[in-house]
């Protein structure tokens, strides 16, 4: 008796077409196609590789420090705008570079749309695929406006964004 496993008997976990027999409605049974559902996201894989090289070249500490600095500036500047409520952790060491906020008497969808239309600033508004989290923090059913500074975000970008938010809330 052989200790070798008969791989052809292993069930597939993901099913979908293959490039080799894309005319079929069902996953092919022949190997290796049986286990190769869909087309690999080569652009995504290349992007992931480039991103990892970028972080490795700069060092994780440098990247994290930049995120912390930009987030801190954003939090400090937003905190002085009347009517703004920030949803975040107080411990900057535990925080990620994502800030959510609401503004008293304003719909988050309006804020996000105006930031985009009038200032070219992109944000994400709503429940962010997390309705239970928004129930917990008290922003359900409207949600929040979410901003996320990146590695290439500058202090000037943050200042422009905060000025734009102030302008949106004035009118």
Descriptive terms for the model:
alpha+beta, 171 residues, Aspartate Aminotransferase, domain 1, four-stranded antiparallel beta sheet, 42% helix, elongated
Provide the fold topology.
Layout: H1 42-58, H2 60-79, E1 84-87, E2 99-103, H3 108-119, E3 124-126, H4 131-137, E4 144-147, H5 155-170
Antiparallel strand pairs: 1-2, 2-4, 3-4
Give a description of the structure.
The chain has a domain at about 60-170: Aspartate Aminotransferase, domain 1 (Alpha-Beta Complex), CATH 3.90.1150. Helix content is about 40%, strand content about 10%. The protein is α+β, with helices and mostly antiparallel strands and about 170 residues long. The model has no long low-confidence stretch (mean pLDDT about 90). The chain has 5 helices and 4 strands. The chain has a 4-stranded antiparallel sheet, with helices on one face. It has helices spanning about 40-60, 60-80, 110-120, 130-135, 155-170, and strands at about 85, 100-105, 125, 145.
